Structure prediction request, 429 residues.
Amino acid sequence: MYSLRRGAMRVPAGRGVSSLSAWLLVAVAFGSLTSCGASSGEGPPGRASPAASDLTAFVGELKLDPPAPTPFDQFGGSVALTSRYAVVGAIGSQVGGNAPGAAYVFDLSSSPAQGVRLGESLAEPGSLFGSAVAVDGDTVVVGAPYHSQAGDRAGAVFVFERQGSDWSATARLEPGDARPQAYFGESVAVEDGVIAVGAPGPGAGSAYVFVRGESGWSEVASLTPREPIVESRFGSAVALAGGRLAVGEWTADQGEAGRAHLYAWAGDSGAGGWTHQWTAISPVAGDRFGYALALSGETLAVAAPGGSGTPTVHVYRASAGAWYSHATLQPPTGANVGFGNAVAQGDGFLAIAAPAAGSDVPGAGRVLLYELQGEEWVYRRALTAGDPTRDAEFGGALDVAGTTLLVGAPGSARDGTPVGAAYRFESSE
Prediction:
């Protein structure tokens, strides 16, 4: 698939789930938090399925509605999560007959959780505001890659901060070399006062880094691939964790191999910038390697959702400062379609989306959980929505925080009309 709905693949270092057992589910359906059941998939042939108790405990009902849900909102096309906030993008959200897009922040510490719409007066019609979202502390970052103030589809990124009980827009970020059809804001990540933004066009694409100072946000780095490939979409995915930045560079060209680049912070307060540390290159040309990323600690997961071949997720780990290939994960039977369209990483596990997969309900989608057991990644089970609908694309976006996994389903339907949903799974351990 190609749509500008990829959320920020930001997985902060040290966050995650120590066990895949006893998950709880809350659904953010139609912009609301609603409890519903979850079902699990079977393990691959020859491997015993986990105990049924893994996914049988559920929290009570909690529902929130956005101010004005509209058909084809694509709510859940991007998601971001912390222990307190869930942020959900909806690029099709309409206002007065126009569709500027939207992003919603849900305060999970309140009961019921309160949702706030961001950017209603800022987003241009058709700007795809909410294509990518990220959150860190009381800072929310929202991408609008079709925003055209700096040129046709040059893109923009909006920063919101919580001030008292309100969320206020505090910055609009655009690169110093803004240009038409750059799609700046297609991917975003934020961590500890640093924002990374992908702009995968035109040409080979770019990625930018902004740092917060006393006078606001300043651009400190503009990154491009060391060996550019035309239309390779460098910057279509970005991830920040622990002073490292990963940038995806996928290509649909069947004769070219995708890449994932790793940069390390090499200065203070932007003085030294970011230095290239390592590049992973796909062993197979045309497999869209680099389409989605998850970075946490010493582990980098790079998705290759596939061209004509089998989709895979490649896992790399660092040892003594050197990165090496650790594993190549493939989907279990029935989950090939869309496998790797999104990926999120926790402590000792990977969540990999297959949003187009379906068995009883075509296109309902699944999220596959792989657990690190010793030095081997083992498929444990599939998560699905308890209220699946046709073409819901469950797994269209993923994020992890603490013991919680947030899953977007931008095609989820209510009363036959696709509006979108997001689902929160939480471990009871």
